[in-house]
Amino acid sequence: MADRIIYVDHAGTTPVHPQVAAAMHPYFTEQFGNPSSLHGLGAASADAVDDARTAIAEALKARAGEIIFTSGGSESINTALKGVAFAQQLAGAGQRIVSTPIEHHAVLHTLEYLERFGFETVLVGVDSDGRVDPDEVAAAVDEGTVLVSVMLANNEVGAVQPIAEIARALAARGESLGRRIPFHTDAVQGAGQLGLDVQALGVDLLSLSAHKFHGPKGAGALYLRRGTPFLAQQTGGGQERNRRAGTENVPGIVGMGQALRISEAARERFVPRVSALRDHFLDRTLQEIPGAILNGPGTSRLPNNANVRFENVDGQLLLEALDNVGIAASSGSACTTSSWEPSHVLLAMGCDQDAAAGSLRVTLGPENTVEEMDFIVDQLIRIVPELRGDAVASEATGTPA
Ligand code: PLP
After folding, report:
1. What is the pTM of this model?
2. Active-site entry in 171, 271, 317, 335
3. Which domains does the chain possess?
4. 311 vs 222, 260, 287, 385, CA distance in Å?
5. Which listed site, 9, 29, 159, 169, has its alpha carbon 20 to 30 Å from 304?
6. pLDDT tens digits for 370-399?
7. In ligand 1, which atom is closest to the CA atom of 12?
8. How far apart (Å, rounded) are the C-alpha atoms in residues 172 and 276?
9. Are 76 and 87 in contact (CB under 8 A)?
10. Which of the residues in the chain have pLDDT under 50?
11. 189 lines ligand 1 (CB under 6 A)
12. Does the annotation count 335 as an active-site position?
């Protein structure tokens, strides 16, 4: 392993901010009370949870009572999709759910699960940049549609979806059908980089995960607009107003609240700085490496996301070669890369299997520098032709590259 790691996998996870770790610490030690306990120690924990709830609600322009704490992005998404779908099914409202093929597996696999209970999923296609058309989403909604779910920003190619436009198109479609269509967005990759104002976005549910914005792993939140049909998916004690049972992860919740406060306060300065770094990396890579192609949109893209495919390069070998020189990057979704299947996102964007397998995702954070970008590009200039040589040699011998 190299002496120094250049970490460019912030879409995978982020380091916990030191102020976040400091804020969490007392809740592991002296402030260990159960928020449901009636003594002072319990009340102190309940106050800390309330304070974090207020922080999240302020960032989302929501009411505190509309925030449900969960164990992370996947649980928020499961809770949102199943909670709305089953409530609607019980009310006899219909069975159709509309989404896109580039969602995270937390959405796609939950939709597959719901299909086993009679739901029908309609996935509206995306263009070659990974963007969905709001009118196509609205057109997929019929009188039996119980939920629409479209992610705010894609974790692999960084495509930012026109959520507010989709919400407007859905409201118009809903009006013509005489029903309100609950709209969920997976905003896990948006926090710290994009506005999360649920009124401006026009969403009824929004999922967040603390470890993507310098908070702890295993802490998340779901925004649930008041009045949205919802059936609790985790039952037990009455925590989270009977919407998610279980003793609260107090240190995690405190950390999440603090992390969102910090990242929201830093956003205005962070976004131009990180997008300039990203553009420097992309400009050099696309100009100096033949056969390098940008995956995803040129604009309407997460400021910290670069995703490039290299023709005739095996993405796994590329990541290993980068790791050997201390560069921690990714080929796509951190949650699926262990299987080394071509990315479902790139395939949905019309990429062929080989191209989808030769992609590199670089996602930046506040600690990255221009010198690091130059180092990564210099390494790519050396490694990519070497790997292409391997590919040619192995074709000749018949061994897979
Ligand atoms: N949604 C998106 C877009 C993600 O990128 C991820 C994680 O990579 C998740 C959901 C799942 O979040 P968590 O790891 O907190 O379960």
Report:
1. 0.95
2. 335
3. 6-13+267-397 (3.90.1150.10), 18-262 (3.40.640.10)
4. 40, 39, 14, 10
5. 169
6. 999 999 999 999 999 999 985 454 444 333
7. 8
8. 38
9. no
10. 333-337, 391, 393-401
11. yes
12. yes
